[in-house]
Amino acid sequence: MIRQHYLEMIRQFVMLDIRTDFRPDIQHEDIILGMFSRRAPLNTILLMIFLDVFAYGMVAPLLPVFVQHFEGGAALAGFLGSLYALMQLVSGPVLGPLSDRFGRRPVLAGCLLGTVLAMGLLGLANSLALIFLAVAIDGLTGGNLTVAQACVADITSEEERARGLGLVGAAMGVGLMTGPALGGLISFYDIHLAALAASGMALLNVALSLWLLPETLNSERRTHALHLPSLNLAAQLKQAFSHTALRPLLLTVFALNLGFAGLQSNFPLFSQARFGWNTLQNGILFAFVGVCAVLTQGVLVGRLSPVWGERHLTLFGLGLAGMMLAGIALNQQAWLLFPLLALLALGTGSAIPSLTSLISKAVSDSQQGQVMGGMQSLLSLASIIGPSLAGVTFERIGVSAPYWLGSLFALLALGLAGLAFRPSGRVDPGAAG
């Protein structure tokens, strides 16, 4: 299932932008020592995050194959991705306030039980209806990582929080690098067995949440009333676009994410149709691009940003992404997918964090929540439209169509960013880096 962080995990093609929150100021040895230190609550949370993302990585590349197994096509696989995003849009804003009111542990355990049920249903599914039901359940209960991050924030001081969230990123990165390979290996024999294994891993996570994880939000710090946020998508978008200076950058984010949102549900079908690949080969490629994404966001971007600046890094990343997507559409050699996707990971990994930073810097502290909430709504909209658009164009136009479309959207994003960064543009050069 599509387990989201996020902005964070993948509203985009998970293997291209996994948003691991790696920080360049955190050394690798600190990450390793932090994972195995004696701080039991943090260790338990990190283990749970790893298991959750590992299970996600096992199953995510297989969803289109499940649809295909019951003679569904790319359009149905796309609708499946859109359904998940829609369920996330409904439930995502609710789970955080629920954990603020009733505590982190019961909400986290409930989300994990949803994962157990969803992946179990997927493993036992004998119809497309059950597959869609499984995805809907997983979308409604898919707030595991958000609540787990709140647990980390509860048990770390302000000085330690960045490092703690960096460790969260490390656990996620390791899970995403290893899960797809194992899922591909198991599914090579039986795709249903991979989903059942992921369900068992989620059940282990439920046990950890109940037996080893203490409640991190004590009763004194909880809210005494349940304040649920507005789910009015139109109102949130209107608020975000009320900042005239940000409109080109917000449209840039939307265009880029619209181009990528459908590719995860489409790529296994593309590689099968063009190169005859099986689930194991796709799993290995997903793991490879996970490594590239971690290296890009964990190492390269932190070193390039001070040298190039965020505006130049954004333009570089968008241009590179557009070219690589066109390269994938044209490519007829299976081995070339590895360098093409590595460069695509570099492009998206450079552009997306830089864009987010530029948007954040362009508004005052008091406007951060409003703007970031509006950007999240844009990402939700892209995640609902993108998968269906990719699936329909795959079936109606051709196997390369989603990648040509993605390239056009990336180049449109490049043009919008260039418009925003002109000397006469509306983005404050000082704020824009």
Describe this protein's structure.
This protein is mostly helical. It has 17 helices and no strands. The radius of gyration is 20 Å and the shape is globular.
Give the low-confidence spans.
1-38, 429-433
Arithmetic mean pLDDT: 81
DSSP helix count?
Answer: 17
User: What is the gyration radius calculated from CA atoms?
Assistant: 20 Å
First and last CA, distance: 36 Å
**In total, how many beta strands?**
0
Helix content: over 70%
Taking the sheet with the most strands, its summary is:
none
- CATH homologous group name: MFS general substrate transporter like domains
CATH class bucket: Mainly Alpha
Quaternary form: single chain
Estimated structural class: mainly alpha
Order of helices and strands: HHHHHHHHHHHHHHHHH
Strand content: under 5%
- Quick one: overall form? globular
Please state the second-level CATH architecture: Up-down Bundle
CATH topology: Growth Hormone, Chain: A
